[in-house]
Amino acid sequence: TESGCLSIVVLGASGDLAKKKTFPALFNLYRQGFLQSEDVYILGYARTKLSKEGLRDRIREHLKPAKADSTKDPTEVISDFLKLVSYVSGTYDTEEGFLKLNEEIAKYEESKNGAEGPSRRLFYLALPPSVYPIVCKMIRHHCMNQGGGWTRVIVEKPFGKDLTSAEDLSNQLGELFSEEQIYRIDHYLGKELVQNLLVVRFANRLFLPLWNRDNIDNIQIVFREDFGTEGRGGYFDEYGIIRDIIQNHLLQILCLISMEKPVSLYPEHIRDEKVKVLQSVEPIRADDVVLGQYEGYTEDPTVPKDSKTPTFATVVLRINNERWDGVPFILKAGKALNSRKAEIRVQFRDVPGDIFKCNKHGRNEFVIRLQPLEAMYMKLMVKKPGLEMSTTQSELDLSYQQRYQDIAIPEAYERLILDTIRGDQQHFVRRDELKVAWEIFTPLLNRIDNGEIKPCPYTPGSRGPKEADELAARVGYRQTPGY
Ligand code: BG6
Hints:
The chain contains 14 helices and 15 strands. The chain is an alpha/beta fold. It has a nine-stranded mixed β-sheet, with helices on both faces. It has a six-stranded parallel β-sheet with strand order 3-2-1-4-5-6, with helices on both faces. The site of 6-O-phosphono-beta-D-glucopyranose has 3 residues, from loops. Residues 198-477 form the Glucose-6-phosphate dehydrogenase C-terminal domain.
């Protein structure tokens, strides 16, 4: 690993994402020894006039000391971390602030002149995407590493609103930075069980021969939240649930669950396979979509009264290749539902020659729960214990909390920031991947935006519109009793 001094610049330092995700992730990396005080400098940048103490106070509230800190006073660990944090204020579209920023970084690098290895600069854009192009331009012109070390930039979705705007953004950023310098975060790729998908699929003999249309009936990828868009109505209403969750988070999961085995674990080999499977996704059929909007959504003062933005959607995707022809992938996401949960449900076909008459009770189902309480479990038919010969469905259950009691599962952002520092792009979205993702959804989004497909109302706290359950059932999903 490289060991030159490292400057991490968080642009948009006084915003929500920075406070709630970026700084806490940096703190956790520091706490676990991945960022050493001797060689890291963290700089916040934003428009707000603020002293460095002011920024530190804002961050402090969001840092949680972990139990593992017991050897050292946890609040001391927090103050030690905060000592590494400084602040520069400036606008996003004029050079003054960026010149100041560059001066600060250069000063720090000079002070570390004796450090082994070239200095490194990481820019984290915790900003609205409308300013990405100008901010990247400013970084490119005024803040690049001159010392032979790297400069990398982390950006976060939304990457455009449709194919054209996304390509436009990609072109603009592509003129300033090479693909190796751009890290597009989809934080679902940093989740423990998402990172587990390729291992489970390709390191288990058990699954290899079963993972195809001959054995799998349908796959459901579900995201539910039990809260609405409170406080984010303005952003959300412009995007809707498909752009917010399905086109990125759920589609990334679909890639990992359906792609072919990569040639190796080299990041480009993995991303090549993801692109290929996305290219095999068929155009979305109108009758494969159900939209919903929870009752009360438009009462949010930041949402237009006549908004038709979906807060819920079920979209069935079909992959036209040898492995998956005929298997529906049911992508479902919703706000203000009955629970907060993200999971993948792989439902196997019925048993042929069903002498136990058990098909009607349920099928084999492999469930991967990303959150909460990470788990993988397999639904199996077994004999119901007792004197009678009857069958019942039961689980082989791997719950992480029980099995890995002593291992704290890292936050997605921690892992992804560390990957960026290490230069590993495997868990980031490549430009061509992003393009195909937009190609899949743009025609549907246009129809929704034109009012051709309207959302069905649903009660907050429910399972979503009943039409969505009907669609899932129509394409073959059989609801497990009690689910
Ligand atoms: C974000 C979406 O990308 O993911 C939010 O913009 C959503 O709407 C969030 O709430 C969910 O992330 P997580 O990690 O809490 O499941």
